[in-house]
């Protein structure tokens, strides 16, 4: 069965966004470490210097780490669906909504102190992922 390549475009978009966040993280972290006179060799273990870096710098790094958590389920689900004949228009729409919400989550986490807003965006992304997973379960179990 042929793979719907368009269905996988949201996967590529989220990968690219994660790499953008990697660049943003180091563009803020390296100057902040230099300003705080933190020796990189003294920062081998996560969290050893966190209190010496500004909150906005830590937020970028936290978000980069978050993009390696729940999105891994998204990646697995997308490839499962693509390899088993899924990936219709509705699933593709859900995937783009999920990616858009994850990008929005990044901006909210980094630029806003509003934890409730960040949680709302995270919850909406999670619900979108649950709907996408549920759709795939129904597709597989009902043939």
UniProtKB/TrEMBL annotation:
InterPro entries: MAPEG-like_dom_sf, Membr-assoc_MAPEG
Source superkingdom: Bacteria
Gene Ontology CC annotation, any one: membrane
Localization (cell): Membrane
Chief place of localization: membrane
The entry's keywords: Membrane, Transmembrane, Transmembrane helix
TM helices/strands, residue ranges: 7-27, 73-99, 119-138
Gene3D superfamilies, sorted: Membrane associated eicosanoid/glutathione metabolism-like domain
Keyword Membrane: yes
Descriptive protein name: MAPEG family protein
Keyword NAD listed: no
Naturally occurring in which organism (per UniProt): Hyphomonas atlantica
Pfam families: MAPEG
